[in-house]
Amino acid sequence: MARSVLVTGGNRGIGLAIARELAVAGDAVAVTYRSGEPPEGLFGVRCDVTSMADVEAAFDKAEAEHGPVEVVVANAGITKDTLLPMMKEETFTDVIDANLTGAYRVAKRAVRGMLRMRRGRIILISSTTATRGLAGQTNYAASKAGMIGFARSAARELGSRGITVNVVAPGFVQTDMTADLDESYQEQIKAAIPLGRYATTADIARVVKFIASDDAAYITGAVIPVDGGLGMGH
């Protein structure tokens, strides 16, 4: 039976790959997007995760279309990279609001139906930057590290109701954003990755599919790096 799935930020990049992977596996997938058009073949709902009203409306529309959400992937996020001495307070708080507080809003709304069903999967997309750090990303790293504490606390709260909460932490992923990086910098990054390449969005999506599956029913509170070995020891 198809499960109702919601992927935030599911109109491009990692989010779109996750949405398509779960749809191919037989789930009924809805995606949120902030601008542009929804991806072809998927049910799209416009949503800004910095607004609780938007998140509520997105879930209402997804559930009207596919039934109570059983799997939620909190993927929507932003970067505003700046070195700390030059970082304005709103540059810090905007990233926290979108990435970390956004994940809280999405998980809080998802849990409502999951508690009634006594089952569910909450998957937060973090980053290896959460544990390794990266210059210019104090805001981003703080938001992604916060997801780990949030997920592990939620896992303890919700486990008795059959709800798992896990974190997937990608490293550098081949996207439009990384393609625009200076070529010499790209080579430096790849040299630091034991597998010697960026992840593909499919690499991330397949791990999320596993965590969302019945095969992962006994995994909760985990942080799963998908980074080619970049974050080993962190």
From TrEMBL:
Protein name: 3-oxoacyl-[acyl-carrier protein] reductase
Signal peptide region: none
Source organism of this protein record: Sinosporangium album
GO biological process, any: monocarboxylic acid metabolic process
Molecular-function GO terms, alphabetical: oxidoreductase activity
Keywords: Oxidoreductase
Family, per entry: Belongs to the short-chain dehydrogenases/reductases (SDR) family.
Presence of the UniProt keyword Protease in the record: no
InterPro entries from the UniProt entry: KR_dom (IPR057326), NAD(P)-bd_dom_sf (IPR036291), Sc_DH/Rdtase_CS (IPR020904), SDR (IPR050259), SDR_fam (IPR002347)
Residues of the Ketoreductase domain: 3-176
Domain of life per record: Bacteria
Keyword Transport: no
PROSITE patterns (alphabetical): ADH_SHORT
